[in-house]
Automatic annotation (TrEMBL):
Its main location: cytoplasm. SUPFAM superfamilies: Histone H3 K4-specific methyltransferase SET7/9 N-terminal domain (SSF82185). It comes from the Eukaryota. It comes from Machaerirhynchus nigripectus. This is Radial spoke head 1 homolog.
Length: 214
């Protein structure tokens, strides 16, 4: 069912309201029979999108409210979350940053609601990967991540004014004779501390000593 403007060819064109066969509804702008321009689309399952459309696809700026209570506000390209946007998850966590192909990808900040901790850094295909800072209430970690875990050189910085340098090392799996059928449990990288120093400037790109220290 459709009520609204049409062009000379009889296509939906201009502003209109439509109810789709599956029970979804759309109210907004059309061009040549397709949703294009600003509009609001209500899904039968309770989800809702309000924002820009281009030829029936979410494209431009828009806000999507998901049935589980989560919400994305930001850029869309061809129906995908792509560009810059903020996602509020159902558990209260938030991610603000870059997206590609519906996934967190690029630079972004993820805040864990339960602990107040923050991951500020790089993402690849939805996973924490690359240089980053993990900020907790009274200390933070600076280093690199791979597959969502810290790996390699980094340092912990404590609010009391000192740093612990070291590296995260991936332990070698120990084989046990009897339980060959069981899949190996994932092994967490282990922190190996090397030294404690006063606060030093640090960037993931240079491991130079600070001026006046060498």
């Amino acid at each position: 069912e459709y009520e609204g403007d049409r062009n000379a060819e009889g296509e939906r064109h201009g502003f209109g309201k439509a109810r789709l066969p599956n029970g979804d509804t759309y109210e907004g702008e059309y061009e040549h029979g397709l949703r294009s321009g600003r509009g609001t689309y209500r899904f039968r399952n309770g989800a809702l999108y309000t924002g820009d459309y281009l030829q029936n696809k979410k494209h431009g700026k828009g806000v999507f409210f998901y049935p589980d209570g989560s919400k994305y506000a930001g850029d869309w390209v061809h129906d995908q979350r792509q560009g810059y946007g903020e996602y509020l998850y159902a558990n209260g966590d938030t991610y603000t940053g870059e997206w590609a192909d519906n996934k967190r990808h690029g630079q972004g900040t993820y805040v864990y609601k339960d602990t107040g901790s923050k991951y500020v850094g790089t993402w690849v295909n939805g996973i924490q990967e690359g240089p980053a800072e993990l900020i907790h209430l009274n200390h933070r970690f600076m280093g690199r991540f791979l597959n969502g875990k810290p790996l390699g050189r980094g340092k912990f910085i404590f609010d009391i004014g000192c740093e612990q340098h070291g590296e995260y090392i991936q332990p070698v799996q120990e084989k046990e004779e009897e339980e060959e059928d069981e899949p190996p449990l994932p092994v967490e990288p282990k922190w190996k501390a090397s030294e404690i120093t006063r606060l030093t400037p640090w960037s993931p790109h240079d491991e130079e000593p600070a001026p006046g220290e060498g």
